[in-house]
Amino acid sequence: MREESTTCCIAGGGPAGMMLGFLLARAGVDVIVLEKHADFLRDFRGDTIHPSTLQLMYELGLLDEFLKLPHNKESEVAVRFGDEEITAADFSHLKVKAPYIAFMPQWDFLDFLADHGKAEPHFRLLVNARADGLIEEHGRVTGVNVATPDGPLAIKADLVVAADGRRSDLRAASGLSVEVLGAPMDVLWFRLSRKQGDHNHTFGQIAGGRFFIMLNRGDYWQCAFVIPKGSLESLQAKGLDAFKDGLVALSPALADRVPELTNWDEIKLLSVAVERMQRWWKPGFICIGDAAHTMSPIGGVGVNLAVQDAVAAANLLARPLREKRLADSDLAAVQKRREFPAKMTQMMQIAIQNRIITPLLASQGPIAPPFALRLVQRFPILRRIPARLIGMGVRPEHIGPELRPVQR
């Protein structure tokens, strides 16, 4: 078996892994990031770049360059109950450089981070490289086995980071326990074209038993249709035409577009899960992002929680990794820093699931806006509260002094 060595090996080229790899390399830490695919071109991934992440790009001095990439800006989030539209959140009042959500294909975000990472001499990105198991010696993780087109590769590292998502292979290999919190829903993702005269805003449409979201992606709508957990087979049994008729009943303006859906293969299932690890780390190993705490799609905060984890981990681990003195207490400090924000966010998501989503999916009649949204509608200043929770999150991170480029 071929063998290489580095200071930190990160499994997963998603938002958490790419951000952590870039930041550690910027701080002078030798890093290898493993991406199991050849590129980042996979659709129906989280495409929301929240104000908290945009603020981090500003602190890194990269915001102006980043915003040259194609994107759509959303300063408000609206939800429609029947014919009644309610603005649920207003980000324009946030005290940040970019007070809005940027909708951007995730592959552009990841390519941007990868390109800046590759400009750092301490950064390496290996594609078509799948983390295939942990190497452990004397009770400590000392590396990772990797499957590559050229055969197996063993990478020895002072630290292995699992940033490989909700179905993390390395998390499973670690033996660390996961608490399943549950979710009452799944989401169907598909595309519909945008037409001249369509509005520009992302919005949600709610009616009895149905919840439909449309995200503006320039020349098409990325659509999310919420269904009860495990109900896809029964939905398919009724036929594609019945599904399309339901879309038109919910949003009549789509009548000329639903014929674009010609088979179920064009409709992708996201099985929603809300999970979290009891302990994120063991000697020489740590999980971050979805690997540590799988988020519901409510609020679209998963990408930004993952990025916040990466920044916190880089702030706390850059110096001990660079100085070759990483201790278990350093890994515990990362969990201590990020566990509370993750738990609080999941708590809010579960409350929305139980109090709004579950009754909504069970209902067959007209749906009235919840009392909280009626308050927001009546007193617009209250829109700043969900904007803060969604846009910035609990305990947002900032770029610390350890992440400034080292003098070379």
Verbal overview:
The chain is α+β, with helices and mostly antiparallel strands and 408 residues long. The chain has 2 domains: 2-181 and 273-398, 3-Layer(bba) Sandwich (FAD/NAD(P)-binding domain); 185-228 and 230-270. Helices cover 33% and strands 28% of the residues. The chain is built from 11 helices and 21 strands. The chain has helices spanning 15-26, 51-59, 63-66, 106-118, 169-174, 232-237, 240-250, 302-322, 328-362, 371-378, 384-391; strands at 2-11, 31-35, 48-49, 72-74, 76-81, 84-90, 101-103, 123-127, 130-137, 140-148, 151-162, 178-180, 185-193, 203-207, 210-216, 220-228, 268-270, 275-277, 281-282, 285-287, 293-294. The strands form 4 sheets. Strands 1, 2, 8, 9, 10, 11, 19 and 20 form an 8-stranded mixed sheet that branches. Helix 1 runs parallel beside helix 4. The model has no long low-confidence stretch (mean pLDDT 91).
Strands, helices and their partners?
Blueprint lengths: L1 E10 L3 H12 L4 E5 L12 E2 L1 H9 L3 H4 L5 E3 L1 E6 L2 E7 L10 E3 L2 H13 L4 E5 L2 E8 L2 E9 L2 E12 L6 H6 L3 E3 L4 E9 L9 E5 L2 E7 L3 E9 L3 H6 L2 H11 L17 E3 L4 E3 L3 E2 L2 E3 L5 E2 L7 H21 L5 H35 L8 H8 L5 H8 L17
Parallel strand pairs: 1-2, 1-11, 2-8, 5-14, 11-20
Antiparallel strand pairs: 3-7, 4-7, 5-6, 9-10, 10-11, 12-18, 13-16, 13-17, 14-15, 15-16, 18-21, 19-20
Helix pairs in contact: 1-4, 1-8, 8-9
